[in-house]
Each structure stands twice: as C-alpha cells, then as structure tokens.
Amino acid sequence: MNSAGNCIRYLTGLAAACLLVTITSVAEETGIASPALPETKDKPVKSAPVYRPPPRGSPAVRIGGATRGAGDPMPKLHVLAPDHIALTVQPQPVFQWYLSKPAQVRFEFTLVSEDSIEPALERDFGTVHSRGFPQLDLAETGVMLEPGVPYQWSVALIPDEQARSGDVVASGMIKRIALTEELAAQLAGADEYDQAIAYAGASIWYDALAMLSRLIAGDPANITLRTQRAALLEQVGLPAVGLPDESAR
User: How far is Cα 16 from Cα 62, in angstroms, rounded to an integer?
Assistant: First the structure.
C-alpha cells in the first residue's frame, strides 16, 4: 500500500481510538460501564451512550405505573425519564413512555409547569393503545417549555371514569436549559448517533433518548440500536424494554 493509504488507515484508527477514550472516560467518571455490543460484518458497533446525571439536589420525582396486583389486565406503564429532574435543550422536546401490552381504555397526557396550577397541555389519546413506545412531540401541539422552569409530565390509563383512584399513572420531570457552546461544538457536523452520545454525556437525557428512538424508527429491525436504548434506560433504573426477548423479563 502507498504512503497515502497508510496515512488514511492511521487517521481512521486514531479517530476511532479517540471516540473510545471519550466514552470510556465518561463511564469511569459516572461509575457506569458502557455496555459491550456485538460487531457488524462491516465495522465495530459504537458503544451505547453513557448518561451523566446532573448534580442531584432534589428527591426522586419519577412515579412508576405499576399495576394493581397479580392477574391485573392493565399493562405496566413507564415514563422514559430518570428519577430526577432531567434536562432538554429543546423548546419542544419529545416525551416517550412504554406500555407492556395493548390496552383499550382511555389514555391521557398532562404537562404542568411548576409555576402554574393550570396544565400547560392536556391531551386525550383515545381508547386503543398498542404495546410499545408511544410518544408525544411537543412541536405538534404549539406548546413550548419556558427556560429554567421545571415541568411535571404524566401519562394515565383510565379503566373507570367514575373511579379515577384506579388509574394507572406514571410521571417524570423535565426542565429546559440553554445549549452550551461546548455542547454545540460537539453536535456540529455529528451524525444522529454521535449526537445522542454527546447529549447523554452532557446530562441532556430527553434529547439523547429522542435521537436513539429516531434512529430506531428509521430502522425498526436494528437489534443493536434497540440494545443501546435498553442499556440507556437501565442506566437510570428503568426496565430494559424494547428487546426481542423482553417477554421473559
């Protein structure tokens, strides 16, 4: 091989090594091991994004959507959010949740600002819901998050309109912050997967998850991407859902 070819091989290897060092460094700082993932036939698969939580200053805020007992026909419901106030840099982020099985009851989404008693958004999703990962893109509603203001968002399955104490409810918290110059530089020119890595390392949970889910939507059969999302969910104490063998979990 000529000297130009050798140079290209050297630079490619150097770039890959730099990416691996960056991900490993974040994992060491957070105490979370970046999951080892299988290789494709063409090239090694990148490690899953490693989420760096923001400094903790508040109690756990996530509410789970556990069912009411053994044999309950209602599905398990999880908001895809950490148990702390998690961050976004988007004025209109995407909210995601998980249903363990189909449901045929009314479903509500609610978004409430800490500064107001009136909901910023209430959305009725009707009565038929498939198993999987529903979402709400705030850009489709016209509602925008105010910078620096915490919001609680919740989803509820309502089996009995006359007995709302029986609702299956899950909720999380979100706060919009400004995009830093450092993160903006990391995002510039990066593909969506590397953007997910950058967001996770900068404590921007919602945007990291949205990037991964967007990639999965574009390639639903990609098991590696699903494994990476499951690994990201596990980092914040959520079930590793969305995998082919999840029925055994």
Answer: 37
State how far the Cα of 192 lies from the Cα of 111, in Å rounded to an integer: 27
Instruction: Return the C-alpha torsion angle 238, 56, 198, 48, nearest 10.
Output: -30
Classify burial at 109, counting beta carbons within 10 Å of its beta carbon; exposed 0-12, middle 13-18, buried 19 or more: buried
If the chain, 249 residues long, is cut into consecutive pieces of 10 residues, what is the mean pLDDT of each piece?
A: 43 38 38 41 64 79 62 82 96 95 90 94 88 94 96 94 89 97 96 96 97 95 92 91 57
**116: its two tokens:** 């107001």
Query: In sequence order, what are the beta bridge partners of 201?
Result: none
Contact between 111 and 119 (Cβ < 8 Å): yes
Does this model's pTM top 0.90? no
Do residues 65 and 170 lie in contact, with contact meaning Cβ atoms separated by under 8 Å? yes
